[in-house]
Design a protein that fits this description.
Layout lengths: L5 H16 L7 H10 L14 H19 L8 H8 L7 H17 L5 H11 L2 H4 L11 H20 L7 H17 L6 E2 L3 E2 L2 H13 L6 H15 L10 H15 L1 H20 L6 H18 L6 H9 L1 H4 L1
Antiparallel strand pairs: 1-2
Keywords: Ribonucleoprotein, Ribosomal protein
GO cellular component, one term: ribosome
Protein name: Ribosomal protein S2
Length: about 325
Amino acid sequence: MMDYTIDDVRHEVQALRHAIYQGDLFNSLRVDVGNLLAALRPGLPTPVAGLTDSDEAALRSLATNLQTQLAQETLTTVATNELLQLVTGLKTTEPTVRDDLAMATILDLLQQGILTAEQMQELARYLLRDEMILAHIDEQASDAVFLRSSSVYLLMMIIFTSRQNGGEPLPLELQETLIDTLAVYLVLETDTRGFVDDKGWAHAFFHVALLLDALAEDPSMTRADKIFLLTLLLERVIRLDQPLFAGEFKRLATYMVNLMQMSSFYSDYLLNIFKQWRQAMIKESRPTDTAGWNRFYNQITLLQNLMLKENLPEPIYDYLNEQRHYLS
């Protein structure tokens, strides 16, 4: 799959997910995911569309007006077209527009209960479009990461806010779209940047850990899907050629421990994965390039962060403690 489209990857992950539900792949899931990831290489970056001057001016005016009404506690509703206009601000690399105006206003609308359940679902559907959460994801690192990462973060906030306010879970069809699209995202995301000078936080892997944590708490989500997404995440992380260094591993470890606290089913599964990782590292020769050493230390740092968690299940701690010479 050196030449592939996002739809090709979507087809592959849907097939993997279907096979898990049929009970065909549970024990070999990690291997099958690894084979898929090994076959993919990002293409060269293409131009990323930002905001025109007129669109940015209109966005600034709208966000400022809404923030003023929110501060005065006079805003009770917002039109859906205005909400989606705010979302367009997530594509800019100017952090004062993307984060301080567009994102901040959307978060205030969410947290202050201005958005209806229907608007939250419409927002989620919009964020799950390929041109949003998957924008340029099949290419090398580019400014599109800000749009992708912001989309992931907002999806997490929609789920968290709805749950916090006692709202209904996402409709089944929307949850299915979320899982399938997030699976594609996990397979293809390779941008490890944290803070980018003059452009703000990219933080893609930090944000996706937050989203996975929110989904893990959803009782309507099946064990199979939680295992599926967990495996995609782990196999992607250990294949990253660049280091993660801006708090991602601490956040990833929190998600994994929270999941393991729900059932020994997850800790048993992770223990098996960690043993497979160790066996693979014994068989592999020492890295000979920067990318290889980055992959090695990404894996080690994730396990080190897990060991620092006070509520780590005992079997996991005991195994990692036995391997401490390899983790040092």
